[in-house]
Design goal:
Two copies of one chain form a homodimer. Chain A contains twelve helices and 15 strands. Chain A is α/β, with parallel strands linked by helices. Chain A has two domains: 156 residues, Aspartate Aminotransferase, domain 1; 260 residues, Type I PLP-dependent aspartate aminotransferase-like (Major domain) (Aspartate Aminotransferase, domain 2, 3-Layer(aba) Sandwich), CATH 3.40.640. Chain A has a seven-stranded mixed sheet with strand order 4-10-9-8-7-5-6, sandwiched between helices. The first copy, chain A, has a four-stranded mixed sheet with strand order 1-2-3-13. In chain A, helix 2 runs antiparallel to helix 9, helix 6 packs parallel to helix 7 and helix 10 packs parallel to helix 12. The model of chain A has no long low-confidence stretch (mean pLDDT 96). The interface between A and B is large, with 96 and 96 residues.
Chain lengths: 425, 425
C-alpha cells in the first residue's frame, strides 16, 4: 500500500473520506473489466457499475474527446446533442415518461424528483425503505434512514422495512408477504395524513439494491404504489443503480414489476464515469415544475456530457450488452446456487441480470447475519485480485455488479476466487 | 434560428428550460474567446466564466483525454490526482483553509457548506443577501430569496439588502453605509435568536455578482462577519463566480475585503466546463463533518476531473492570466468610464479584474432602473456578435465576464459594439 499517498490524502481530504478495503488500493489504469494498481497488478472489477460498458471504453473516450475539442457550454444555447440524446433516452421509457431534465449527479436527480413531487402534490411526505440511500444533499440525506444524520430528525420522511422474501418478519407469513409490506406503506400514508403533511410520493430503487438486492414479494410494488397514488402521491423510481440494462431483459429495473413510475431518476452508469445524471418524468410534471420555479444547472446537459451519454447508449446497443447481462447473469447465478449447496454460510442467492446479492448467514435456520465473515470475504477477494463489496441492513450481503461487458471467462475467475475465499473462512 | 431544433427541444425538455436571447443561438464550435453558430458566424463570448481559460483550451482537452483514456473511478481508491490537486488548490488559500471536499457542481458545494455549518454550530439560521442565487437543490434554493419558491416559506433563511454603495437606502447616509448594512445583518442574527434557530452562518458571494457586482462600502464584510461570528456563526464565501483569479490581483474574491472565511465554495470556472466543484474549509470543520455523517460523491474528485482541474491551474499560471485580468480589466473599466461620460443611461460602472457590471438607469439622479433598455442592449449586442447578459435586483446591470485570456483587441470589439448599441437606444 502507498502509505505516503494515504498520509498526504489524510492531510488534505481528512481521515473520514471513505476508502475501500483493509488495505486501500492505488489504482492507476483501467481497461474493460480490469483495473491495475501502481505495481502493475491487475484486479477484476466486479463491483463497479459506473464504468458501465467497461473502463475507458474507446468509443466513449473518443466521443468525449471529439466533443471536448469542439465545443462545451451550458444549455442556454440550442445544441443538437442534448435534444438528440434526450429524445433517444426517453424513447426507451413508457410513452408517459416523455420529458427529461439532466443533472450532474444522482443526488441532484433525486433532489429534483423530490422538489417536483412536493410541488405537484402540495404534500411533503416521502416514503422510503429503512435501508435507503439516495444521495448526499440535505433533502436527500433525510431519506437515508439507515445512517444519514438528517434522517434522525425529519418529520417528512417515513420508512418501511425492505420488502424481503428471504427474511419473513414477525407477524407476517410467506404467502401474504406482499400484503404485509403494503400495509407498512399504508401505515406511513396514514401517519403523514395525521401529521398534516400529506404524501408526496414513494421513492424506491425498484431492485432494492442498498437493501441487499432483496426480492420483492410478487405484487408488492403494485400494491404499494396503488396505496400511495390513492392518497395523491407519486411513484418515483431511483434507477441510479438499476438502470441502463443492469438487470437484463429490460432497460430499467422498474419494468420487472410492470408498474410505470411518474418520475425516474438516473445516475451512475449513464456517462460511464463522466458526471451525468437526470430525471425522466411525465411531461405535465416537468412543465409544471418549470412554471413554478426556475431550474438551471450550469454543467448538466452540456454537449460533452450528452456526447458521452450517447456513446454509452451506442455501446450498449452495438455490443448487445443487455443480452450479455441476461446470459452471463444466468450463468453466474447458477454457479452461485452451486456454491450455496456447498457452503452453508450462503443463506440466499439473488440476482437480476448482472447484479448479484449473496447473503451470508451464520445459521441457515435462524438466518443470523454473518456480517464479519462478509467483511472478511470482501477483503480476501481483493487480496486475491477480485473487487466486490457488501451491502444490506446488516452489511452481510456480498454485492457484485460488474461492467456489462463481463464474460463467462471473467465469471469463472470471480466464482473460483469466491469459492476459495469461502473455503478459507 | 433553428426553429426545428427549438421545437424538438420543447418536446423533450419542456418550454421552461431556460434559453438566452430573443432568438436563441445554436452554437456548435468554440475556440478561445470565440464561439461559432451553425452557419459559421462567430460571436465574442464576454459572458461565460465557465470556459475560464478559453473555450476548448488544448492543454485542458489534452489532460482530459489522457486521463479518460487511462483510468477513471470514484475516490474510494487512492489516486495521486485528487491528492495532488487538492494540495495545490488549498495552497492557494490562507493557512487555515487547509482541507477540501470535491463535488460536481456549485449547488452540491453549497449544500455541503450548509450541512457543515449547521452541523458545526448546531444552529439553523443562514443569512444571505436579498438578491442571492446559490444553486438549485432544495436547501440551497431556500437561499434564493429573490425568486426561488422554497425561499418564500422557509424560516431558517433571512436576507439583508445587497450592500451597495451606489444606491443609498432610505435611512442611510453615504458615510456610514457599512454600519447601515451591518446593522441589517445584526437584525437577522437577532431574529434567528428570537426564533430559537440560532445563526449557522452568513453565506455571500464576496463580489456580490448576482446583486449586480455591487461595491460593498469599505469595511462592511468585516463588520458583518464579526457580528455573525460573535453569535457563533460561520463565514461562508461563495467563490463559484468570483474564484480562480476572476477578480484579478487575488486568486479569490474574498481576499479583497481581507476577511478569511471558514468555508469557501467553488464551482463554475474550476474545470473549464467539466463538472468540477468543491468546498475548501478549515480542517476541523471537515474532520468533524466526516465524523458526523458519511459523505460520498460517486463522480466528484475522480482522476479525470482532477486532471482537468490541474490543467486549469496550469494554464492560469503558465499564461499569467491573473495579471492579464488586471491589465485588460483596467483597460476595459477606463473605456467604460468614458462611455458613461458619453451616455447618461449609464448610472454606474463597476469592475473587479475581468468582471464588469454596468448599471443602466433612466435618470442619473433618481437612479430609476432601465431594465427594458438593459434587455434591449443584451439582445442587440448578441445580434451584433457579442455575448453579454444582465443581472441585479432590477435586471438592469449589464454583466460581462469573459474568459481570462481576453485581450485588448477583444476588449475593443466589446466596447465598440457596446458603444453602437447604446447609441441606438
Amino acid at each position: 500500500m502507498n502509505k505516503q499517498l494515504l498520509m498526504r490524502r489524510y492531510e488534505v481530504l481528512g481521515k473520514s473520506a471513505p476508502l475501500f478495503y483493509d488495505e486501500p488500493l492505488e489504482l492507476v489504469r483501467g481497461e474493460g473489466v480490469w483495473v491495475y494498481d501502481a505495481s502493475g497488478r491487475r484486479f477484476l472489477d466486479t463491483y463497479n457499475n459506473v464504468p458501465h460498458v467497461g473502463h475507458c471504453h474507446p468509443h466513449v473516450v473518443a466521443a468525449l474527446t471529439a466533443q471536448a475539442s469542439t465545443f462545451n457550454s451550458h444549455t442556454r444555447y440550442l445544441h443538437e446533442n442534448i435534444v438528440g440524446y434526450v429524445e433517444r433516452l426517453t424513447a426507451k421509457f413508457a410513452d408517459s415518461l416523455s420529458m427529461a431534465m439532466l443533472t450532474c449527479t444522482g443526488s441532484e436527480a433525486n433532489e429534483l424528483a423530490l422538489r417536483m413531487a412536493r410541488q405537484h402534490t402540495g404534500a411533503q411526505g416521502i416514503i422510503v425503505t429503512s435501508c435507503a440511500y439516495h444521495g448526499n444533499t440535505e433533502a436527500v440525506a433525510e431519506l437515508g434512514t439507515a445512517f444519514m444524520p438528517e434522517a434522525r430528525t425529519t418529520q417528512r420522511v417515513l420508512a418501511f422495512p425492505p420488502p424481503c422474501s428471504y427474511r419473513i418478519p414477525v407477524g407476517a407469513s410467506a404467502d401474504s408477504l406482499a400484503d404485509f409490506y403494503a400495509a407498512e406503506v399504508a401505515k406511513a400514508v396514514a401517519t403523514f395524513s395525521q401529521r398534516g403533511l400529506g404524501v408526496a410520493g414513494i421513492l424506491i430503487c425498484p431492485e432494492f439494491a442498498n437493501e441487499g438486492l432483496v426480492m420483492e414479494p410478487p405484487g408488492f410494488i403494485e400494491k404499494a404504489v396503488d396505496c400511495v397514488r390513492a392518497a395523491g402521491g407519486l411513484y418515483i423510481a431511483d434507477e441510479v443503480q438499476g438502470g441502463f440494462g443492469r438487470t437484463g431483459e429490460h432497460w430499467w429495473s422498474h419494468q420487472h414489476a410492470g408498474v410505470i413510475p411518474d418520475i425516474v431518476t438516473l445516475g451512475k452508469p449513464m456517462g460511464n464515469g463522466h458526471p451525468l445524471a437526470g430525471v425522466v418524468a411525465r411531461a405535465d410534471l416537468i412543465e409544471a415544475f418549470g412554471d413554478w420555479g426556475m431550474y438551471f444547472n450550469t454543467f448538466a446537459g452540456n454537449p460533452v456530457s450528452c456526447a458521452v451519454g450517447n456513446a454509452v447508449l451506442d455501446v450498449l446497443e452495438q455490443e448487445d450488452l443487455l443480452s450479455n447481462a441476461v446470459t452471463v447473469g444466468h450463468y453466474i447465478a447458477e454457479r452461485l446456487d452451486a456454491l450455496q449447496a456447498k457452503y452453508s454460510i450462503i443463506g440466499d442467492v439473488r440476482h437480476k441480470g448482472l447484479f448479484f446479492g449473496v447473503e451470508l448467514v451464520s445459521d441457515q435456520d435462524s438466518k443470523q447475519p454473518a456480517s464479519v465473515s462478509a467483511m472478511r470475504v470482501v477483503n480476501e477477494m481483493c487480496r486475491k485480485g477480485v473487487l466486490i463489496s457488501r451491502i444490506g441492513l446488516h452489511d452481510n450481503v456480498l454485492k457484485m455488479r460488474p461492467p456489462m461487458s463481463f464474460t463467462h471467462e471473467h465469471a469463472d475467475i470471480l466464482l473460483e476466487t469466491l469459492d476459495h475465499c469461502l473455503a478459507d473462512l
